[in-house]
TrEMBL record:
<feature type="domain" description="ABC transporter">
    <location>
        <begin position="6"/>
        <end position="247"/>
    </location>
</feature>
<dbReference type="InterPro" id="IPR032823">
    <property type="entry name" value="BCA_ABC_TP_C"/>
</dbReference>
<dbReference type="InterPro" id="IPR003593">
    <property type="entry name" value="AAA+_ATPase"/>
</dbReference>
<dbReference type="GO" id="GO:0005886">
    <property type="term" value="C:plasma membrane"/>
</dbReference>
<dbReference type="GO" id="GO:0016887">
    <property type="term" value="F:ATP hydrolysis activity"/>
</dbReference>
<dbReference type="InterPro" id="IPR003439">
    <property type="entry name" value="ABC_transporter-like_ATP-bd"/>
</dbReference>
<dbReference type="Pfam" id="PF12399">
    <property type="entry name" value="BCA_ABC_TP_C"/>
</dbReference>
<keyword id="KW-0067">ATP-binding</keyword>
<keyword id="KW-0547">Nucleotide-binding</keyword>
<dbReference type="GO" id="GO:0005524">
    <property type="term" value="F:ATP binding"/>
</dbReference>
<protein>
    <submittedName>
        <fullName>ABC transporter ATP-binding protein</fullName>
    </submittedName>
</protein>
<dbReference type="InterPro" id="IPR027417">
    <property type="entry name" value="P-loop_NTPase"/>
</dbReference>
<dbReference type="InterPro" id="IPR051120">
    <property type="entry name" value="ABC_AA/LPS_Transport"/>
</dbReference>
<keyword id="KW-0813">Transport</keyword>
<dbReference type="Pfam" id="PF00005">
    <property type="entry name" value="ABC_tran"/>
</dbReference>
Amino acid sequence: MTAPALEIVDLRKNFGPAEIIRGVNLSIEPGERHAIIGPNGAGKSTLFNLVSGMFKPTSGEVRLNGERISGLPAYAVNRKGLSRSFQVSSVFTNMTVRENVRCGVLWSMGQKYAFWKSIRSSKAVQDKTAAILAQVGLTEKANLPAALLPYADQRTLEIAITIAGGADVIMLDEPTAGMSHSETERAVALIAQATRGKTLLIVEHDMGVVFGLADRISVLCYGEIIATGRPDEIRGDPKVREAYLGDEAATLAEAAH
Ligand SMILES: Nc1ncnc2c1ncn2[C@@H]1O[C@H](COP(=O)(O)OP(=O)(O)OP(=O)(O)O)[C@@H](O)[C@H]1O
């Protein structure tokens, strides 16, 4: 039997006396697109940071393809095949678009940034970089400094960097935050295409994005998963509706139809 792509077992995280993640269990199959939703302050970013190795859990375990990764530093988790984006843009703004993507490609190939010059002409690196730029539609802007990209393109570049390493498990933290409606629609199509055949874990506030992309959804509330299921199951779950107040409940209901 194949191990889950990602398995979270009784994961807990305290900040001082406050228990922020309170016994999370979650199993995500290879190739599944899984969204985590929940009210502000529920612990979504904290959970992301725990899974990707940015934070060490207080207790519990995270497994990638059956192998324990909790406790490993983020770069080691990345080397094992899990790549994440950040809520706040992590693009190198003083480098060109191409250099940013190349950075992700090189990292996956185990090269350090210091070796850049000597291997800048490596055909494999160039080809992979060009393929990713084409995949996300940034070929024509490849020579621009990333700082000059419009906001939505910067977020697209961030997705490109995240997938550039060829990781099988991709985690995206609010990839469409701050985008217009049409930009969001394009981003959803891009994410679906760029993560085909991979496992995707996404944190997202936009319910249209969540219901458009996810095979399954987990709802995090005060550090606990209160429901996991297919979009239609989540839509009808009274616990979920209760967890969302006012406008968010209305948005959830709207997005579900
Ligand atoms: N490093 C930290 N030290 C102390 N408390 C923290 C730390 N990081 C997060 N918290 C607290 O943990 C709780 C959960 O925060 P987190 O950012 O994970 O929630 P979230 O669900 O991602 O919220 P949002 O939807 O607003 O981004 C919040 O109460 C926050 O103040």
